[in-house]
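Aggregate trends can hide what the representation actually does to any particular protein. The sequence in question and its structure tokens are set out directly beneath this paragraph.
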Amino acid sequence: MRGPLLSAVAAVLVSAGGCSRPPAPPPPTAVIDGPPVATASTTATDSAPGGPRDGDRFGVTPGTVWRGKSGEPAWWWQVEFPQPREVGAILQVHGDHPLARRNTPRRYVWQASEDGTTWRDLDGTAVADERRTFRLHRLKAAERVRYLRLSIAAADGEAPTLREVEFFADPTAEVPFPPWAVVVSTTGDRTVPGAGAEFVPLARSCDGWDNLQAQNVWLGDFEEAFLAAEPRPLCAFLSGNFIDWCQQDRGHWRGVQEVLRAGRLPMWAACGGAQGLAILAETGVDRPWDCPHCRDPKAPKLPIYTHIGHTGPAGRCGTYDACVFERGPHNIRPVADDPVFAGLPREFRAPESHCGQIEWPPAGWVLVAAGGEGSRTKTQCLRVRDRYVYAAQFHIELDGTPAVSRAIMGNFLGLARGWGGYNPDGKPVAPPDGVKP
């Protein structure tokens, strides 16, 4: 039986939190979780700061993007994470046009903050003159951050637009991205979208390529530095043009020459773009160019390029009244078993629209298709001997022979995928069967 004194001591110990009964643990700290909260300096009507985090990478409708208000000297878009997290890579898709760079950030840097007040630039994310609509930034080491901000000092167009922003913890993370193509307008006009856009619906009409993405660029933006940035493109398409070669700004072609010599990207060029590749391979941009109108026959500057023929005096440069044209579907005759023509007959028809042609394959190139019955164009398609780089005088991207165009495009896309797209480690491929040594 417990005595009065013992009961009193026990009561004191319990009331004082003594060792006979440990104190209750404090309530657990609440774990704050949820999606990042996006805000912006300004937001244009119908867009929203949360648009770039909706999972729709390529949507350009106002509800799926953030766009800053026009007329501002600078802009920012930021996210606050529920709690600090590791960030090692940032994928951004920007611009409000599905095919071309328009209303995009031009000069910007990503910044991090622990309190939303004091910001520091993230090394390796500053871009002084953005040319890409798709950009993956990889940090040297992962950063633990609570806030991330895209600080935009200048924009192309009226105001910057973000389509999508994604964050990855590991700087070396594999970031899935659909195949995309660079479409190069070779006309010399900086306006995009421009020439060559027809390649995109043709490519998307091929089996398995309906989600191919693309960026249409003007000639001067196409260079190795543009291609080497991540995510890297699958291939490039070069448009035709309608300018005499003596009237071209050769400097605009310097980047194409660099890409061609590096040999890291599969390319398909049509008409004037095809002639341009042959001219770059044969003559380059550092020697002057002429054309059949102004050419000194005793000292031609660009003899690899000629006209099909003339009906009278050649006339002035830039005029084609006396030139013989081939327009509409004409017969093409493969002269080698090149995989790009797999599944096609030994003679097929494809759209034409030209008066000029390449006279011979440059060194390192081979002839893979010539003019078929009724065609006066002797050089219809050239290829770099050990690369999937094609220069076609005809236009698969134009209407007229849809089955042939899809077959060639599908074959080319398959070859580009097998090569690995833009591939600094790409190995030489076998020349097509049947070419002359």
The chain has a mean pLDDT of 92.
